[in-house]
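User: I'm new to structure prediction. If I give you an amino acid sequence, what do you actually give back? Let's try with this one:
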Amino acid sequence: MNDAVPQTPLLIVDDDVKLCRLLREFLEPHGYGVTAVHNGRDGLGLAQREPFAAVILDVMLPGANGLDVLRQLRATSTVPIVMLTAVGDEADRITGLELGADDYVPKPFSPRELLARLRAVMRRAQTPPAAASATVMMVGDLRINPQSRAVALHGEPVVLTAIEFDLLLALAQRPGWVKSREQLLLAVADRDFEAFDRSIDVHISALRRKLGDDPRVPTFIETVRGAGYRLRPPTGPRP
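Assistant: Good question. You get back a string of structure tokens that encode the predicted 3D arrangement of the chain. For your 239 residues, that looks like this:
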């Protein structure tokens, strides 16, 4: 009799074979079925063919670097992606977030931290139980459906990553109310605010682009200097 519990399929794309082996040994007892590949081309092809629940993707890869893999993968997939970046390489982190990565972990890292980040991005990708009965929100011509996690603008669908959707939802719950970067980071990333952490700003920038929003004369997301962001009520005065 086979009582094995089905494991969550996870793809790791990293050319460090030893690290991949260590991560497999750590993650499999936590319920993940780990597949590891060691170059960008193989990682992209596998991620496009197989229904992985999440991808852990290194930036520095042979064949095709992780940012190129991320860019091509995001053209067709919303799979949760955690990037692995070099310590202090803020440019790679920002570029990865702009291209649609859900989170990043700088090397070297604790496997427990990676597991926590992985669980958080996968949790965001699923419909929160509390949102299942929530009604559709309308902010001007913007329609937000918390249950299906779908967004439409002027009746046309807007494809968002999990964290972009959660940012928009957090702001839409109280249009006109300012939310600080710390509040938004805790709401969508399940982690504390870190000094000089620009991830929320990068995600807001990507969200604005997808909504066709001009940050200088915003229709939807307004920056409140020194305080954070707010979603403008449709009848609110322009700045």
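You can read the tokens as a compact description of the fold. Here is one thing that stands out. The radius of gyration is 19 Å.
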